[in-house]
Amino acid sequence: MAIHNQLKLLLTAGSLFAATFAYAVVQQPLREDDPEDDDTPLPVVIWHGLGDNYAAEGLREVGELVDAINPGTLVYYIRMADSASSDRSATFFGNVTEQVAKACEDIASHPILSTAPAIDAIGFSQGGQFLRGYVERCNNPPVRSLITFGSQHNGITAFRDCPTSDWVCRAAMALLKGNAWSSVVQSRLVPAQYYRDPAQYEQYLEYSNFLADINNERVLKNQQYKKNIMKLENLVLYMFEEDTTVVPKETAWFEEVNGTEITPLRARKLYSEDWLGLRELDRKGGLKFRTAPGEHMQLQEALLNDTFAEFFGPLKLNKKKAGAGQPANLWSGDL
Ligand SMILES: *[C@@H]1O[C@H](CO)[C@@H](O)[C@H](O)[C@H]1NC(C)=O
Ligand SMILES: *[C@@H]1O[C@H](CO)[C@@H](O)[C@H](O)[C@H]1NC(C)=O
Ligand SMILES: *[C@@H]1O[C@H](CO)[C@@H](O)[C@H](O)[C@H]1NC(C)=O
């Protein structure tokens, strides 16, 4: 949820747009008779964070790195609108349920993504929990590895101030001066839909338009959400060590912070009763808690390189890396 800090990348600038759009042309069809024998890297979808847009240079640089590490990777940038400024506004305003549904439709109807046996995904900040929403609600094509950086998986307890020059952000935050639980705010203001204050847990359960649902915190649990999370091969949760933008920063690891008390995911009911399939995923070695040095979204190129090398690439190569224990028919489930 960086507003001023979004994607402060420690990368060198470059002209990257042309190459990114050229992938679609050079990409080989992914679905062959046996996708297990295909050397083509799985496509990677990226969902950016609050205050950013899909065409931003920093985001494109990340896409370039993905392709540099696994040449020939199709990189798709999730967007809510074709214009960069409208896409940016949609990070503040909109109904997240509808936004996730749009991402689902766009991915499922994309000429290349829709033919892939699986995709990999990177979620920056709020884009991380939205991509988890994609996995739980749609997962067509299914995600193999979901990597989230500084995401608010267990919500936020405070909203960040905006820079004075950012009127879109200020207009959004002005709405919050009212009641965060009102249906006007919950249907229109994006950060409110992952606002989760343990001191107001009852209101959260009743009114949260997004997070309480995708975290399966209500009495009726959605079994499909759990099944879909269990289909992931990896869920990699990066927390920024010095994050002061996201409150609390431990939300990146699904930790519960109530006042000064921090409860790790493995000590929570969400895990012990396995509302989301996270315990099951953990048992097969797929749940990874990682830290990244620095403030929110201060991404370091070496860390990105290592992460992409570890979790992305062709279906079969990655399986070798992942070692034994993965079902051979991982992608033959309900696609
Ligand atoms: C958000 O959109 C969904 C789907 O259109 C709708 O069912 C839901 O009521 C909306 N949320 C609010 C708080 O209006
Ligand atoms: C958080 O702490 C408050 C105050 O101590 C307490 O009333 C509330 O029940 C706690 N919430 C949760 C979800 O543990
Ligand atoms: C990251 O990988 C790219 C592509 O291989 C390489 O050019 C770059 O030097 C790497 N960066 C670091 C910091 O290792």
What does this structure look like?
It contains 14 helices and 8 strands. Mean pLDDT is 87; it is low at 1-32 and 322-335. Strand 6 (256-258) and strand 7 form a beta hairpin. A 6-stranded parallel sheet has the order 2-1-3-4-5-8, with helices on both faces. The protein has 335 residues and is of the alpha/beta class. It is globular. The two termini are 32 Å apart. Helix 2 packs across helix 13 (301-311), helix 4 (96-108) crosses helix 5 and helix 5 (126-137) packs across helix 10. The protein has helices at residues 17-26, 57-69, 84-92, 96-108, 126-137, 167-175, 183-188, 201-207, 211-214, 223-231, 269-272, 278-283, 301-311, 315-322; strands at residues 44-47, 75-77, 119-124, 143-149, 234-240, 256-258, 261-263, 287-292. It has one domain (17-159, 215-322): 3-Layer(aba) Sandwich (Rossmann fold), CATH 3.40.50. Helices cover 36% and strands 12% of the residues. The structure holds 2-acetamido-2-deoxy-beta-D-glucopyranose (3 copies). One 2-acetamido-2-deoxy-beta-D-glucopyranose is lined by residues 198-199, 201, 258-259. Pfam families: Palm_thioest (PF02089). One of its GO terms (molecular function) is palmitoyl-(protein) hydrolase activity.
